[in-house]
């Protein structure tokens, strides 16, 4: 039988101001279409940057007063199917009903357990067909609270295509929680579900354009991801399986103020992200900017187009400098070999990224035009079905593919904040030698 979350003899009624005006998400729509774009290399930015929106502390008060240290949005990680590899941290029992003024949700099962939080599959208590993801973390004894930053980012990009819809957030005396849209398998699992361990070129190019759009939205909202990789993007469910969603804002950081002014780089910063994809600046303990997110995006592009990266089997915890050296080599004597199997335009894209300055806004539209140019040269249409839309077995197999590419944080005792740092208000990566090795499972029905 189901239970109702109670404390001190009473039913917990969380009246979180975060969830005001929250509506039930609409019925899944059609896949995202890719609009034709010009191939001119002289295109300027089509979208002007907007000032970032940051919810006030008052908006987030129901999640608690503690400062956030980092956030790990765990969509999915497990070695096999939906069975978590760890015991849930929040001891939230199946059948428990969470009551909030935005709705009531019943816990169906635990679908993800990481070192700091759990993700549960929940359904609307009044309509079991409506399913959501609910992320929970303990109030006490939590080494790294994660939910506040997730809520901040999701609210900052509210209404944008390709980000999970935020439903509600609140807390009890024992745990904090955040209810959000449920999504499907991540791109990493989908890639490894294919025999060739890589996407077809049409699918890869189309996916890369969508992920680039997500980064543009995130950056224009004032946030860096700092952990761009295939497992942090997932497809939608049902008819939305042509839409790529951006997930996991565990290492997100504000990089500009409310007026759009970019914070100056700090003298030193943590080595963080995921070793396979992290930027050269992060390897060198330098502060990151949008350029670094695009560099990680480029490594992801190579992986989706060609398969595993040349340094994918190197243990980054022990040899991150070796990985850094390999990344430097693809800009020198190893460039031709690395670019083999990728459209020529990606050689140009890497050069563009490497030449970007810390304060420079990426030329997203020019990168889009180069991808369009590559498709045109290869006589590819960017409107044809994606690999998993052509073969349903890929989706089924992705449900059982294990996860790779864990997020890593090796701060080396280099704090992320500082008295004058922009992260004091919301986040700080100051945990010494904090290596995160969480496991994921894909959010699904």
TrEMBL record:
InterPro entries recorded: CK1_Ser-Thr_kinase, Kinase-like_dom_sf, Prot_kinase_dom
Top-rank taxon, per record: Eukaryota
UniProt biased composition (Polar residues): 425-445
Gene3D superfamilies to which the protein is assigned, alphabetical: Transferase(Phosphotransferase) domain 1
Segments for region (Disordered): 1-26, 409-445
Molecular function terms from GO: ATP binding; protein kinase activity
Residue ranges annotated for the Protein kinase domain, each copy included: 105-371
PANTHER family noted in UniProt: CASEIN KINASE-RELATED
The protein's name in its UniProt record: Protein kinase domain-containing protein
Organism: Haemonchus contortus (Barber pole worm)
């Amino acid at each position: 039988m189901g239970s109702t979350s109670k404390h001190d003899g009473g039913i917990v009624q969380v009246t979180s101001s975060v969830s005001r005006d929250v509506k039930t998400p609409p019925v899944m729509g059609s896949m995202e279409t890719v609009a034709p774009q010009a191939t001119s290399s002289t295109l300027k930015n089509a979208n002007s940057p907007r000032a970032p929106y940051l919810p006030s502390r008052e908006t987030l008060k129901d999640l608690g007063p503690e400062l956030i240290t980092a956030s790990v949005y765990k969509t999915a990680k497990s070695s096999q199917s939906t069975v978590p590899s760890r015991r849930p941290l929040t001891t939230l029992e199946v059948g428990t009903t969470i009551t909030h003024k935005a709705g009531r949700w019943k816990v169906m099962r635990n679908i993800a357990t990481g070192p700091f939080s759990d993700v549960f599959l929940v359904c609307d208590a009044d309509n079991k067909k409506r399913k959501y993801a609910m992320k929970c973390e303990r109030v006490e004894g939590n080494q790294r609270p994660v939910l506040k930053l997730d809520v901040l980012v999701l609210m900052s990009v509210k209404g944008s295509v390709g980000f999970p819809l935020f439903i509600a957030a609140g807390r009890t005396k024992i745990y904090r929680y955040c209810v959000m849209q449920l999504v499907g398998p991540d791109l990493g699992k989908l890639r490894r579900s294919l025999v060739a361990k890589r996407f077809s070129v049409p699918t890869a190019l189309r996916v890369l354009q969508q992920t680039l759009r997500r980064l543009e939205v995130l950056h224009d909202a004032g946030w860096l991801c700092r952990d761009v990789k295939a497992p942090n993007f997932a497809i939608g469910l049902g008819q939305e399986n042509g839409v790529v969603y951006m997930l996991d804002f565990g290492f997100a950081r504000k990089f500009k103020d409310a007026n759009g002014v970019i914070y100056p780089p700090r003298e030193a910063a943590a080595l963080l992200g995921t070793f396979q994809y992290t930027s050269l600046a992060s390897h060198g303990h330098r502060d990151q900017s949008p350029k670094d997110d695009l560099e990680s995006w480029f490594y992801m592009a190579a992986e989706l187009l060609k398969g595993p990266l040349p340094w994918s089997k190197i243990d980054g915890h022990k040899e991150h400098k070796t990985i850094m050296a390999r990344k430097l080599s693809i800009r020198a004597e190893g460039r031709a070999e690395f670019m083999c199997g990728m459209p020529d335009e990606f050689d140009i894209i890497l050069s563009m990224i490497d030449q970007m300055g810390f304060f420079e806004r990426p030329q997203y539209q020019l990168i889009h035009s180069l991808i369009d140019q590559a498709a045109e040269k290869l006589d590819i249409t960017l409107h044809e079905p994606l690999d998993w839309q052509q073969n349903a077995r890929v989706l089924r197999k992705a449900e059982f593919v294990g996860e790779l590419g864990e997020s890593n944080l090796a701060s080396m005792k280099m704090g992320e904040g500082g008295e004058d740092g922009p992260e004091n208000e919301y986040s700080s990566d100051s945990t010494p030698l904090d290596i995160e090795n969480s496991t994921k499972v894909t959010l699904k029905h």
